[in-house]
Amino acid sequence: MPYRNLSVYQKAYQLALEIHRLSLGFPRIEQFELASQLRRASKSIVANLVEGMGKQESPAEVKRYLRIAMGSCDEVRVWLEFSKDLEYISQANYEHYDFRYQEVGKMLRGIIKRNTNS
């Protein structure tokens, strides 16, 4: 499974695990709403990255899945902002995870750019 060697996969996977654990501490009322959305979006990045990289025979399909992963990355950042503003996570946690998701987004854009230039 060559995708496991990609640093963007490793970062996104680790972040999804951390976000999953973090969101389990949200209030009970949010477990089926905000926490669930946050968990799904963080895992969607990894899932779409893997699915896209598995479609190496079609550069257009690879880009499509990577763009979906980028959209999920942006979605996580929005849910993190809601989490901060609702005081479910600290400002420091928000900044920490937002920065790391910005990095993942840049890495995904880099892969898309490389696939476009090939």
What does it look like?
The protein is mainly α and 118 residues long. The protein has one domain (2-117): de novo design (two linked rop proteins) (Up-down Bundle), CATH 1.20.1440. It has four helices and no strands. It has helices at residues 7-23, 34-53, 59-85, 91-117. Helix 1 runs antiparallel to helix 2 (34-53), helix 1 runs antiparallel to helix 4 (91-117) and helix 3 runs antiparallel to helix 4 (91-117). The longest helix is centred in the middle third of the chain and has 27 residues, at 59-85. It starts with 6 loop residues before the first helix and ends with a helix.
Count of distinct structural domains: 1
Mean pLDDT: 93
Broad CATH class: Mainly Alpha
Give the name of the CATH superfamily: 23S rRNA-intervening sequence
Strand content: under 5%
User: CATH topology, what is it called?
Assistant: de novo design (two linked rop proteins)
End-to-end distance: 22 Å
- What structural class do the secondary elements suggest? mainly alpha
Residue stretches low in confidence (pLDDT < 50, at least 5 long) are: none
Tertiary shape: elongated
- Oligomeric state: single chain
Strand-and-helix sequence, N→C?
Answer: HHHH
What would you say the CATH architecture is?
Answer: Up-down Bundle
